[in-house]
Design brief:
- With 182 residues, the protein is of the alpha+beta class.
- It has helices spanning 2-25, 66-77, 99-110, 129-138, 170-176, and strands spanning 32-33, 42-43, 52-57, 83-88, 148-151, 157-161.
- The strands form 2 sheets. The protein has a 4-stranded mixed sheet with strand order 4-3-5-6, covered by helices on one side.
- The longest helix has 24 residues, at 2-25.
- Mean pLDDT is 89; it is low at 5-25.
- GO terms for molecular function: peroxidase activity.
- Residues 1-21 form the signal peptide.
Length: 182
């Protein structure tokens, strides 16, 4: 009799531990980016409940026209609930020397109003915590500029895209549309 009781307690405890682990897995870490030019930090946790598109950008890259695509996508889908973050980086040698130059270029040439972070590192142990998390949990490491990461409303990775996939492409829209808040 005591064996059955202990077994039930054990099973109930195990189920509880599994439920707790599943709940924790649904909650992504709260990442923070410093905004380009200063101001209040960009905290991805504040965007929970919305899909978030994070794009590592570079102003002097051959894919730089995607800055305009990113801005247009932000204008069209932002009101529907999509959050967009541009994350400049010079890991591949295609960004300006200073954050001020990057910001001026993006605003002047592309009319960017998309939230942008200060330039960050994407690669190695000194990478921004978001990119270290992507590497550790998904095995995803940007291999060039304009790699895209889509997070769901809980902050979990839905999918990633490489540089050739343009922001606002039909493929992106098809995957993002069901994630938008009702």
């Amino acid at each position: 009799m005591s064996f059955r009781l202990n077994r039930r307690v054990f099973l109930a405890g195990g189920i509880s531990l599994l439920a707790d682990a599943a709940a924790r897995a649904d909650q992504a870490p709260a990442f923070r980016f410093d905004p380009i030019g200063g101001g209040e930090p960009i905290e991805l946790a504040r965007w929970r409940g919305h899909p978030v598109l994070v794009v590592n950008t570079a102003s002097q890259c051959s894919f730089k026209a995607q800055l305009g695509d990113l801005q247009q996508f932000h204008e069209e889908w932002g009101p529907r609930g999509l959050r967009v973050l541009a994350v400049p980086s010079d890991d591949f040698g295609k960004e300006f020397d200073t954050a001020a130059e990057t910001r001026a270029y993006c605003e002047t040439v592309w009319g960017m109003t998309v939230p942008m972070s200060e330039p960050v590192l994407l690669l190695g142990e000194a990478a921004h915590p978001f990119y270290r998390w992507l590497r550790q949990t998904r095995g995803f490491v940007p291999n060039w500029n304009f790699n895209k990461v889509l997070l769901d409303g809980a902050g979990q990775v839905v999918t990633t895209w490489g540089a050739p996939v343009k922001p606002g492409s039909e493929e992106m829209k098809r995957i993002i549309a069901p994630l938008l808040p009702a």
